[in-house]
Every structure is written in C-alpha cells, then in structure tokens.
Amino acid sequence: MSPRIKTLRKILNPPVIKGFKPYGNQSVSVAPEPVVILFEEYEALRLCDFDHYNHHESSVMMGVSRPTFTRIYASALRKIATAFVEGRQISIEGGKVYFDSDWYHCRKCGSFFNNPEREKEISRCPLCGDRHIATYDISLEDETPMRSAAKCICQECGYEQDFVAGQPCSRLICPQCKGKMYRKRRSTNI
Prior knowledge:
By secondary structure, the chain is α+β, with helices and mostly antiparallel strands. The chain is 22% helix and 20% strand. The strands form four sheets. It has a four-stranded antiparallel β-sheet with strand order 7-6-8-12, with no helix packed on it.
C-alpha cells in the first residue's frame, strides 16, 4: 500500500530568520546536528503562540484539518524542547508548503514565481527580466495527471502533445523545433 499523499500547507510568509544558535559554555567539543523545524511547524507556532489563534482557526488558515494542525504544532514544540535541552541549533527550512501570495508565470522562460512583498508590483520575471508574465492560479491547475486533457507545450513554437503519466513534460524535446516542453497551465494576462 502506498503512503497517503501529503497536502500542501499554506504559509502566510517565509520566516524572517533561518534559525537560531545557542551561546554560552559548551560542554560538548563537537556541535551536534541542528534541529530542523519545517516551515509548516514554524507557521503553527506563529499562528498559535504569536498571533494567539486557537487550533481550529489556525488549521483553517493553513488549509489542513484540526488534528493535522495539532500534530504539526506538537512536533514543533518537541523539536524546540530538544534544541533547548540539548543545546542544539535550530534551522527553519523545508516542508511541503506554499506561500500565501500571488503567483506568476513567465511566458518566455517558463518559470513560476511568487510575490511575498505585496507592496511591490511585479512587472518583470526575476529570472530572465521579460515583461510577458501572467498571473497563475494553482486552483486552476490540472491535479490529475491521468486525465487526457493535460498537455505538454513547446516554449518556442507552441507545439502541443498529450501528457503521459510518469513522463514529465520538462524532460521532453519538441519534435518540430527541438525546444523545451512544459506542462500547459491555465493563466490570465496581467
């Protein structure tokens, strides 16, 4: 039996820091491995202990069930306790998350990027600098790869072919112009 697919957890913004280091006398000559707190665990701590939401309200904000939120929160508390008691560093990274900000797609290079700084307007792709960008809505994404409606499209000439499950579009080469293929996504112009 295959494991259950882990759903994405919604995070308001990335943490302002990457971690913490203990200071003071160290009785151990070799520093132990850091404790890794995932982004979703950081978000659970922020929502409950900093913003003072209850578990139900926090779970709705993160897009997970209340029992799942409670497990994430408990895991974060255990990791922080371990770091404090054992004098280990804390590193905040990883996890299966998405940030609660607008996402964009560059039509020239095919990259996807978001805008965590809502005050600044996006006018160019941060990777290639092109102005041909489109807003991207993940809710419009075709999440079932077995559906026949999914297509792979060439970035250069626009050639389309059916998506084949287990064969990522990014690994395909266009038979017409030898350009790079990518998964066709629904988007709207900015």
